[in-house]
Design brief:
This protein is elongated. It contains two helices and five strands; from the N terminus they run αβββββα. The protein is of the alpha+beta class. The model has no long low-confidence stretch (mean pLDDT 83). 49% of the residues lie in helices and 17% in strands.
Length: 166
Amino acid sequence: MAVRLCRWEGIAVVTLAEAVAAERSKRRQDREDASKRKQVGRALLQALQQRLDAEPLPAWSFALDDDRIHVCRNKNGSPRRVGTWTVDHELRLVLGQEMTEWITAESCNRVIDEAVQITARFIIDAEERQNVPQSRLAAAAERWRTFFRAFGAPPKLVGGDGKSGR
């Protein structure tokens, strides 16, 4: 009794040469698509940077670097990078954990507006984070001054006005 594993009659058969040609074509198309996505991403980042620089904020700057925008806080005369805008593989602008909607010809202006709003939130969050530790330090220092006054700390540590004698 003969066992047939495959029946070839009426079935489309792909040759190895056809499969290789199809794979080459697919990869060429993927490279072209990636190149187009990169061009679109760069153009959008350039438009976003122009919008962010249109009305400069004194303590903030935005530096376009090929395929990203660095968000920098200028402190003591030198910029410090605190975030970066990039374009992800799904063509969305990304800053930290925030991202815009997908970039299409119809959504381009909305995406830039959304990115400006995300940047504003990012800046306010960064400024608030910076201020929180200072207020916590001030509160802790006040608690220590109260403690030293209450338990008779030596005058070298606490001055008569409750401030450090150092």
